[in-house]
Amino acid sequence: YEDTNTTESLRLSLNNSVSDSVLIIHGDLVFNPATIQCFDRTQSSVIVDSVGQIRDDETGVTIVNQEATFFAYGLSCKWGQIAYFVGKELHLLKKICSDRNKSKMYTFEILNEIIQLGGKFKSIEPRNMKIYEVDGLKDLR
After folding, report:
1. Cβ neighbours for 17, distance < 8 A, ≥ 6 positions apart
2. Is the CB of residue 71 less than 8 Å from the CB of residue 61?
3. Burial class of 48 by CB neighbour count within 10 A (0 to 12, 13 to 18, 19+)
4. Could you tell me the CA-to-CA distances from 81 to 40, 52, 107, 137 in Å, in that order?
5. Contacts for 52-61 with beta carbons within 8 Å, 24 or more apart?
6. Structural contact between residues 17 and 3, judged by C-beta atoms closer than 8 angstroms
7. Beta strands 131-133 and 29-31, pairing class
8. Most buried residue, 33, 40, 105, 118, by most Cβ within 10 Å?
9. Is 93 left (phi over 0), alpha (psi -120 to 50) or beta?
């Protein structure tokens, strides 16, 4: 990550995948199976947290009619850093990640760009979800 960010990792992964769907999970998460067993594989979606499992200083998301509409810091509902891509949204993800000028983008910035280009993400908050982000040893307590 000295010269790139999440987008470059996604580009490399997408270049080596022939799947018609992709599940992106940030590598610093610990979660239970219920967190990812809820995806409807026919539509792109994101995991959200409105009950405080994700820290306040993480990326938030606005939701309108169960659809994620904007990702940014300072929002009360948090993005769980897990996203499922299929169809139009997967096509847009591949297009964005293939642009080397965007190699420093964060995943939430990619999601915003996909939404701006007409993509849609259903917001999902699994009932029995347990999710934690581990940024250091103190998070393991």
Report:
1. none
2. yes
3. buried
4. 17, 14, 8, 20
5. 53/78, 53/129, 53/130, 53/131, 53/132, 54/78, 54/79, 54/80, 54/81, 54/131, 54/133, 55/133, 58/133, 59/106, 59/108, 61/123
6. no
7. antiparallel
8. 105
9. alpha
CB neighbourhood size of 20 (10 A): 10
Q: Report pTM.
A: 0.92
Q: pLDDT tens across 12-56, in order?
A: 889 888 899 999 999 889 999 999 998 999 999 999 999 999 999
Compute the half-sphere exposure of residue 15: CA atoms within 13 Å on the CB side of its CA: 10
Q: Where would I find the H helices in 99-140?
A: 107-116
Rounded Cα distance between 76 and 58, Å, is: 10
